[in-house]
Write a structure and sequence with these properties.
By secondary structure, the chain is mainly α. It contains six helices and no strands.
């Protein structure tokens, strides 16, 4: 039973990392290159639709601290996504433990700052519409929260799963 649960968790993690590649490349990283016109109009319109519909001004006019997280996503996380996807698709790759712990703690820490900003920031001075009501804040929060919960699940899996947390016994000579 436990082995089946761990395999389901690995599949969830693989899906998370596989899906993260196009989301990051096509949507999340657009604000880093706004003047470069690298993205087709349909993708820039998709980002604008998202920002207006879910009242996420951080994606249209990111504060500097949010840009720092975007650069981390571009240069630290993006190279990790295919590696992690491979490890979790294959399953039982113990070598992914330490990189997954580093990734998940980095992302969880970043998301705490983002979620606090969503909950407590005064968006009335934003150039782009931000959440005005508690309900709008909770809706925007619901977009970001999976990017906290799944890394926390990865972290706890890497720390407490016997599949990943086994101490290998070395032979004594």
């Amino acid at each position: 039973m436990a082995a089946g649960w761990w395999r389901c968790a690995e599949r969830l993690f693989a899906l998370y990392f596989v899906s993260h590649v196009p989301i990051s490349l096509l949507i999340d990283l657009q604000p880093l290159l706004p003047a470069a016109h690298l993205y087709p109009r349909s993708l820039t319109e998709l980002l604008e639709w998202y920002a207006v519909t879910f009242r996420d001004p951080m994606m249209m006019q990111p504060p500097e601290w949010f840009k720092a997280f975007m650069y981390c996503e571009a240069f630290l996380q993006m190279p990790f996504f295919p590696i992690a996807a491979y490890a979790f698709i294959k399953g039982g790759c113990k070598w992914i433990r330490t990189p997954a712990i580093i990734y998940s703690t980095h992302v969880a820490t970043s998301l705490v700052a983002i979620l606090a900003h969503i909950l407590f920031h005064d968006f009335s001075k934003s150039e782009h519409l931000g959440p005005r009501t508690q309900q709008e804040r909770l809706i925007l929060l619901s977009i970001y929260i999976p990017y906290l919960l799944i890394p926390l699940l990865i972290l706890f899996t890497m720390l407490y799963s016997p599949q990943y947390n086994q101490v290998e016994k070395r032979k004594r000579k």
